[in-house]
């Protein structure tokens, strides 16, 4: 799960996605950390 979120972050940074989407990714990462 951690590797998947890291890959998502790399893609997000490389594509320079909007800040709103970055916030969504951050929320997803926090949720995944809580699940572990």
Helix content: over 70%
Strand segment count: 0
Indicate the overall shape: flat
Low-confidence segments: none
Q: Write down the Rg.
A: 10 Å
- The count of helical stretches stands at 2
Helix/strand order: HH
Return the structural class: mainly alpha
What kind of sheet is the major sheet?
Answer: none
Strand content: under 5%
**Tally of distinct domains:** 1
* Ends apart, CA distance between termini: 9 Å
Q: How confident overall, as mean pLDDT?
A: 76
SSE map:
Blueprint: H1 2-15, H2 19-35
Describe the protein in words.
- The protein contains two helices and no strands.
- The chain has one domain (2-35).
- 0% of the residues are buried.
- Helix 1 runs antiparallel to helix 2.
- By secondary structure, it is mainly α.
At a glance:
Helix content is 86%, strand content 0%. It is an all-alpha fold and 36 residues long.
């Amino acid at each position: 799960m951690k590797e998947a979120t890291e890959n998502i972050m790399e893609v997000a940074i490389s594509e320079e996605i909007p800040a709103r989407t970055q916030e969504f990714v951050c929320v997803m990462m926090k949720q995944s950390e809580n699940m572990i």
